[in-house]
Each structure stands twice: as C-alpha cells, then as structure tokens.
Amino acid sequence: MKFMSKILLLMLILANTLFLSGCWNYQEIDRLVLVAGIAIDKSETDDQYLLTVETVDIKGGGESEMNSNTITVAGDTLFDAEKNMSSISGKKLYFAHARVAVLSQDVAKEGAVKVIDWLARNVELREDIEVLVSQARTAKEILETGSKVDQIISFELDRVLKNEKRIANAPEKELWKLISDLEGSSISAVLPAVSLKEVNSRILPSVMGTAVFKKDKLVGFLNGDDTKDLLFIQDKVNGGSLVQNGGGTNNGSKVSLKIFKNTTKLKPIEKDGNLEMAIDIKTTAAIDEIAGSENYIDEPGRLMLEKSAEETLKRSIEDLVKEVQTKYNSDIFGFGAKVKADRPGVWKEIGTMWEDQFKNLKVSVHPEITIKNSAALSQPIKIGD
Amino acid sequence: MFFRKKDEKKTNSESLLTDRSKLTNSVDANIKLFKDIFINDDTFVVRKFQNKYLKTAACCVVYLDGMADTEAINENIIQPILGGNLKEEISDGNLLEELQYKVIASSDVQESANINDMVGSAINGDTVLLVEGYTKALIISTKGWQTRPIDEPLAERVVRGPREGFVESLIINLSLIRRKIKNPNLKFQYKELGLTTMTKICVCYIEGLASEKVLKELVRRLDNIEIDGILDSGYIQELIKDAPSSPLETVASTERPDNVAGKLLEGRIAVVVDGSPFVLTLPFLFVEYFHADEDYYNDSLYASVSRLFRMVGAFVSILFPAIYVSLATFHQEMIPTPLLLSISAARHGTPFPTIVEAVLMGFLFEILRETGTRMPAPIGQTVVIVGALILGGAAIEARFISAPVVIISGLTGITALLTVKFKSFPIILRLVFLFLAFLMGLYGIIFGLIGLVIYLMEIRSYGVPYMLGTGSFDEEDINDTVIRVPWRQMPFHPRFAAVKNRDSHHRKQR
Description:
The structure holds 2 protein chains of 2 kinds.
Chain A: H1 2-19, E1 32-42, E2 49-59, E3 65-75, H2 78-89, E4 92-94, E5 100-103, H3 105-110, H4 113-121, E6 130-134, H5 140-144, H6 153-167, H7 175-183, E7 190-199, E8 202-214, E9 217-222, H8 224-233, E10 241-245, E11 254-271, E12 274-291, H9 299-328, H10 335-342, H11 344-350, H12 354-359, E13 362-373
Parallel strand pairs in A: 1-4, 1-5, 5-6, 6-7, 12-13
Antiparallel strand pairs in A: 1-2, 2-3, 7-8, 8-9, 10-11, 11-12
Chain B: H1 6-16, H2 27-37, E1 44-50, E2 58-64, H3 70-82, H4 86-89, H5 95-103, E3 109-112, H6 115-123, E4 127-131, E5 137-140, H7 170-180, E6 186-193, E7 199-206, H8 212-223, H9 233-240, E8 252-254, H10 257-265, E9 269-273, E10 279-282, H11 294-297, H12 300-329, H13 337-347, H14 354-374, H15 377-397, H16 403-416, H17 424-440, H18 442-458, E11 460-461, E12 464-465, H19 475-478
Antiparallel strand pairs in B: 1-2, 2-4, 3-5, 4-5, 6-7, 7-9, 8-10, 9-10, 11-12
Helix pairs in contact in B: 7-10, 12-16, 12-17, 14-15, 14-16, 14-17, 17-18
C-alpha cells in the first residue's frame, strides 16, 4: 500500500510537470503566416491605429517563390487591430520573425510609448526588432513600396540597419535599447529615419538620418551628415567616410577618408564651477580617394590633410551640438549619462535640472585623425606635362 | 518454448540413459546397447573386426558417420589392430591397456566405463572402441567434421588490423585466441549447456588479471541456465545479461579474435560457444558501443576523432527527428528566418502533420534497411534504387512528404549505421523522443533526456556501473573512453576490470 501511494504521488508530480508547463502551442509551420515587418499609423479620420504587416507569401512546389504582401487593418488599440487582422488572413499571423517596426511621424509625435508597449509586451515579437521612424507621410508606404534586392522589404531594411555600423549614417536601434533609452533620465532616444527616394525610376525606401526624441515624443530629424557626427560623439563609428577639402592652395582637392577605427571619449570637466564636456576623438583613417593630383600622401601633405580633416570634424560636431541644444534641447548624445557615471556627486546636484544644464553646456571637441595608408596607390596620379 | 520446468527436465534426461551405465563382457551385447541408443539414426556406424593371429583381439568401432574422420579410424585404429605383428607387440596382460599404450595411434585416447561419456564422445565425432571381454571401452579422438575456413568477419570490417574472424568451431576459436596471447595464465574452462544440444562452451580469462568476483558471478549465471538448445552465443548473451528487458547490451559480442584478446588483456572475461562465430565478452560498458577495433591500431588522434564522430552520430540518430518535429511544430521562433521560410515552402501543400511524416519516413528507412539485410546480395541494389529514388524522390515530387523530413530521416538512418552495435536501441529511443517532441516540444525532449540519463546510470554490468567514469575528469578514467590517448600514456589496466595486476606495461612501479 505504501509503495502504491508513493507511485501515485510520483505520477501526480510528473503529470503536473506536464500540464503546468507553458508549452502547449502546437502549430504546423505551413499554417502560419510569417510577419516580416510591422508599420504603425494613425488613422486620419478617427482615433484609431492602422496596423500594417508585411507578410511573406510562400508558394511551395518544385521551385518555391516568396512574395511580399501587406495587410492593413484598423483597431482601437494595436492588439485590437491584430485581432481583426486574423479574421481577414485566415491563417495565424506569426510575429516571432518580424524584423522591423516602422512608426509613422504622427504616432511618434504623439508619444512612442503608446505603441512600443505593445511591441514589447507581445510574447511573439522579439526584443531585438529594429525600430524606425518613417519620414514619408505614412509608415505603411515604406512596406508597400517593394524592395529592389530582396523580395521582402522588411528583411532588406533589417540588413541595411545591420550594415549601418560600417556606414554610419543612421543610428541603428533595437527595441530593447530604445526602451532602456526611454526609461533613462540622462539620455534621450534617437531612432533611425527611413524615407522614400526615387532610384532608377522606382520609389524605394532609404535609411538615412536620425529621428530625435524628447522624452518619448518626436521633435525633429537630423540628416545623414549630422547623424555621422552624432555617432562620432556616441562612439558608434566603426566605418564610413569623411569627405572634405584637403587644404593647401585654393583649398586643395576633395579627399575621401575611409574610417578604420574610432574611439571617442567623453570627459565631463569642471571649470570655474561650470560643467564642461570634453570630447576626445581618436580616428584612424586611410586615404580612399583624391579627386586631384595634390600630394597628400607624403608627410607634409598628410599632416596638412589630417589637420584640415580635424578642423572640419571639430566644426561640424560643434555645430551639431549647438543645433540640438537650441533647436530640440534633447540630450541625444548621452552627456547626462556620462556625467551620471563619472561624477555621480555632481549629477545628484544637477540631475533634476539637467534640461537647463544641457542647453547651456559648453562642449569642446578634440579630434585626432591619423592617416594610416593610402589604399592601393602610394602616389597621387600625376598628369604629364 | 525451450524452457522446461525443472522436474520435467530431470525425467527427460534420465529416460534418455536409463540402465545403460554398464557395459557387458560381450561385444555383441554392447553393440546392441549402442544400437538401442542410436535407434533410427542411420549415420550410426558399427564396424566389427578381429585380428587373425590374435583371436582375443575381437573389437568393434562405433562412430557417427560424418562426425568422425574415417581415414583416421582406418589408419590409426583398425589397421594397427588388424596388423600381422599385433601378436608380437601384445603381451598377455590387459589387452585394453596394451591397445591404448602400444597400438592405437591417436593423440587422445581415454579409457572409460561410463556409457554416457561414450555416447557423448561419439556424438562429438570421437570413436568408441569396444573389445571382447572388457566392460570398459576406449574413447579415441577422431573428430573430423568439416568447418568453414577462417574468413574476414563480415560484420566488423577494418581497414587496418588483423583480418581473421572466428568460425563455428569452438576449438579453432580457442586456438585463435591462444595465438594472440601466448601465456599460460590464459585459462580456458569448458562447460556444457543446453539439455538437448549439449553445446560446449568455454570461459576464458587471464588469471591474475580478471576480477574473481565477476568470474564467480558469470559461472553462477551460466550454471543457472536451463534451456533445451543453444544454437548461437546470442542465447547465452541474453540469458546472462544484466537489465534483461533493456534494449541495451550488457554483454558484448564480437567476431574478431583481436578484439577478444584486447578485452582479455583489460581483465575482462570471454565466453566462447561452440557453433557460433560470435564470442561474448563482459563486463560491457556503454562507452564501448562507440569503440572499434581499429581505434587501437590507428593513431590515437584519429581514433579519438572517430569516437567523437560516432557519439555525435548516435546523438543525431536518436534526437534529430525529435528536434526537427519540436522546432517545426512548437518553437518556430528558434529557427533562423531563412531556414523557416524554406521549411515552410517545403511543407506547403503536404497533407500530413510533421509527426506523421517523421514516423512514416522513420519506418520506411527501417524497412529498407531490414530488406537490404535479408535480401540476397544481387537484389540488394534494387532495394536501394526503389527505396531511394522511387519512394524518396517521388514522395517529395508528389508532395506527399516534405523534403526536410526526408533529409532528416536519411541523416538519421545513415548516422545510426555509424554505431551498428546499438541495434534496436536508437530505433526505440527515436520513437520515444518523437512522441515526446510531438506532445511537448523541446520540453518533452529534455524530459526524455533526463529519464534516459537516469536509466543509463542505473544499469550495471556484472557489478560495474554501465556509465562508469561519466563526469570524471580523472586522466585514468577517460584515457580509453570517449577518446583514446596514446599507448604511452595508458600505463594501467582499467580499474573496474583488472583488480590486482593493473600495470599493463609490466614496468616496475616507480
């Protein structure tokens, strides 16, 4: 009897482990509709959200085909819209492989948190989904254009963003990072901007520039060059190029520098009781293109080029900081976070009024560019006399 | 069917030999005695003869046609006794002894009064010599049945290593082992098993190396066997193994003398069974499933890599279908997006759920494998073509089965052949895991793995834990398990088998 009751107890425990676990969602792959990307708009007529999903339509058979397809459905909330959607598509929408979420300007201006909550709370969606802001009129246009390389535009956008590390003209931001930026008081969020551009007489989405947020509301955009300066400050440049005049007589020729490696250090320093931010930029670059025959490769020319590049960089970064301070007054650079980390004592005093502090923060930029080589040519191309 | 109740068995064996324990003085009466025993046996041969000079030498040889070497009987028994100079050679003493010592030219002649011995010997191909006037007889070794020549073993081929394999003759098999280990400490102990077949078996071990505890236990288990007939060592393997209902072996079998010699040198014990080219060795550990003879003949690095591959192969063979089913039906988020898309495309329009596909293809492969084994060799090709091309290709083409499942089943089947010794184990486990994956996804697979590990840890082979050394990082525990270290670094016999004399290089202890 005792043995039997022991067995029964064991079986009960085992049975519980089976039924109390969370894995009961048996579903065959071919019954799922794969969602590749999401676009969120605000309805113009009433106070409803328009949820657009780009789905992957697969035609099986000997040679399978993938086609992009979009579905747009309205709902009072996003979840409501999602629910309405499954009554249209018939199959279950599967969000786990969605790669991008595009917010329209209207949605972003109203406050990103309202929609980001659903993105983050959804059990299927991943935290590493790329979030973008559409510079076009609506967000759904972006997904509806159709891609050039890939069949699925969302996957292409995702690849472009993953490449940004090497191009440095848009700040790639995954959902989890966006949430942590929004929650922090010492940094303001930025998102990459995506716009429509005409390429080869087709309208294609292009990821370029930055959407600037204050708290969770969109306040404006930065263009691609400004974005590069922003990434310089944030120490997120691992590639890309610098283009400027080489200097010398008549300002010289245009030179492209390819960035190999960059480290930026922010240093909050106190000067006469005032906080000042020093930005030390150390960049290794190579000459990638000389649009002329000046010699920027030998030492005097190279030093001159370095100096002029440093100056250009310094000026443009200072301009950007000034612009952001006056126009948006939003600490997208993370100066506050740096002060908080390096000088917690100071932050305690000024943290609550960081907005005012940031507006008047003095910034000094110290770029140091080292030119390592000149790619495949060791001499400028000389024109014969 | 082969088992009988104990008391039934006694009456059976007694009735076979009642009142025949005594020979009489008369050859004719004795012949009648034998004829009664071998009644209805037409291979039974009686040859009476008498020396014309020495009338007392009236003899009779009794043997079984086909079992005995008739040439040897003619030349070594009948001819000398009929010879003209027998009279001079024989003094007046005991004729039987004189014949044994002076006349019969055979290496093994024994005097016996026990008719059971005589019958047994005659059955084994010996010749019984009855002499007028004696109640005893001579048993002369004339075993001369035909055997298969020593061949390369079919089931365990090697690229590098000895190519001889065991045959069906016990004595030849023992000689094959003896030839590898030329040491008087190598012991052979005969036993007879099988109440009707009376099959000879032989327990071999190296004295001073093999564990006495294991040997005692083996002898006890052998003595407890009650069975009618033993036609192959498989009977014994099943009857003496631990965990009798398990699909796993706890007693190994091999066709290769070098394998047996190696096991004996490690302190294991071998059981050779007459009539079977498969020799049993024990104790057997789980990790030995992944060993091959060649591992010891090739360099250690290659051997270690091969062993690791076999392990990965077993893992793939057992778990891949289950992992596929669980990913495809529960955890689509874990599949990389491009792969998910291609699986989705492949599954598009196929009628069966993934689990049905997986089980069907699994069965199909096993059927093809079984057919391939049983088929006469020339037809085997047809099976391959029909199986691979028609069934596999057409099933995908017609969208009955999705391509990934066919790929997975193919992979599963091939990897299972990396460790052929496993036999039913991966087939059963694969189904169990498939079922668990179908019910609960990866969660179920993890459950199954936990259960499997507990089960494996529980098994013992002759008192030695089946998973011995698992989890140990002691150099000595792992040097010949999942890897094989160079011989130089393997100075000891394994701890579990060789109890007393562990220094395998016979060096002086430092």
